[in-house]
Specification:
Helix 1 links the parallel strand 1 and strand 2. The N terminus is likely disordered. It is built from 9 helices and 8 strands. Helix content is about 35%, strand content about 15%. It has about 250 residues and is of the alpha/beta class. Helix 1 crosses helix 9 and helix 3 packs across helix 4. This is Alpha/beta hydrolase. Keywords: Hydrolase. One of its GO terms (molecular function) is hydrolase activity. Pfam families: Abhydrolase_6.
C-alpha cells in the first residue's frame, strides 16, 4: 500500500511518480523528508510495477491506466503538485492536462514529455532505427519493457555501489504497452505550468524551448537525481510547493 499524506499537512499535496521499472520505493526517502516538514507527500507505485505482479498482469497495463490511476489520486482532496521522473512525465503531464487547476504545478526530473498522438518510444533513442528495434524488442518480450542490466548502471558515475545494487535488485519489467501507447492531450505541454530539471540545457525537450510558464533548473549528474542529490531534490520540491501554496 502506498503511504498516505499526513492528515495534519497543509497546502498542496505532493504526489511523487517513479520512472520505468521502479515503484514507490525510489521516492520514499524523499517523501518521508517532505512529510517531516509538514507536506502531504505520497510516493506512488504505478499499476503493474508492484514487485509481485505477474507478467500477464504487467503486460495488460496501458498508458491510459496510469493516467487514470494518478488522476483519481490527484482529484481526491486538496490541489496537488505532481513530481515525475523519466517515464512518468508522460503520465503527469496528461493528468495535468485533464485536471486543470487541480494540478497546481508539475516538477519533472529528466522526464519524457508527451506529445499528442505520439508514444514514449516515438520520442526515445537517437534515430528511427533504434526506436523500431526497441518497439520490436518490447513486443517480442510479451509487451514487457526489460529493465537495464546491472552492467549498464556502471555508466552512472554518480551512483554509489549500494545505489547500483539496490536498483539492479529492485528493478521490475515495465508494462510495455504504456510506452507504446500514444499520448492524448487537449493542449500541448508548453501551455502548462511547471519546473523541468535537466542535466544540461542541451537536453531540454524541444517542446519547452521558449515556454513562458516553465522554470528550467540544471542539476548535473546522472539519471537518478533522487539518489545522487537527495538534499537538492528535496529542497527543490519543498521550495516550489511552498511557492505554489502562496499563490492559492
Amino acid at each position: 500500500m502506498n503511504p498516505q499524506p499526513d492528515s495534519y499537512s497543509t497546502g498542496p499535496r505532493v504526489l511523487l511518480l517513479p520512472g520505468a521499472w521502479m515503484g514507490s520505493w525510489i521516492w520514499e526517502p524523499i517523501a518521508e523528508t517532505l512529510r517531516s516538514r509538514g507536506l502531504g507527500a505520497q510516493a506512488v507505485t504505478l499499476a503493474g510495477l508492484e514487485p509481485d505482479a505477474a507478467a500477464g498482469q504487467r503486460a495488460a497495463v496501458r498508458l491510459a491506466d496510469h493516467v487514470d490511476q494518478v488522476s483519481i489520486l490527484a482529484a481526491h482532496g486538496s490541489p496537488v503538485v505532481l513530481v515525475a521522473h523519466s517515464y512518468s512525465g508522460m503520465v503527469a503531464a496528461q493528468v495535468a492536462d485533464r485536471l486543470g487547476d487541480q494540478v497546481r504545478s508539475t516538477i519533472h526530473f529528466q522526464s519524457f514529455l508527451p506529445v499528442d498522438g505520439l508514444s514514449l518510444i516515438d520520442l526515445w533513442g537517437p534515430d528511427g532505427g533504434a526506436r523500431a528495434q526497441e518497439r520490436a524488442d518490447i513486443i517480442a518480450d510479451g509487451c514487457l519493457w526489460a529493465a537495464p542490466p546491472a552492467a549498464a548502471l556502471d555508466a552512472e558515475p554518480g551512483l554509489s555501489a549500494d545505489d547500483r545494487s539496490c536498483l539492479a535488485g529492485r528493478f521490475t519489467p515495465h508494462p510495455g504497452r504504456t510506452v507504446l501507447d500514444q499520448a492524448s492531450l487537449e493542449q500541448p505541454v508548453d501551455s502548462q505550468h511547471g519546473v523541468f530539471v535537466t542535466r544540461s540545457r542541451a537536453q531540454l525537450p524541444a517542446a519547452l524551448v521558449g515556454a513562458a510558464d516553465w522554470r528550467i533548473e540544471i542539476l548535473p549528474g546522472g539519471h537518478w537525481p533522487m539518489l545522487e542529490h537527495p538534499g537538492e531534490v528535496t529542497e527543490l520540491i519543498g521550495d516550489h510547493t511552498a511557492a505554489v501554496d502562496s499563490l492559492l
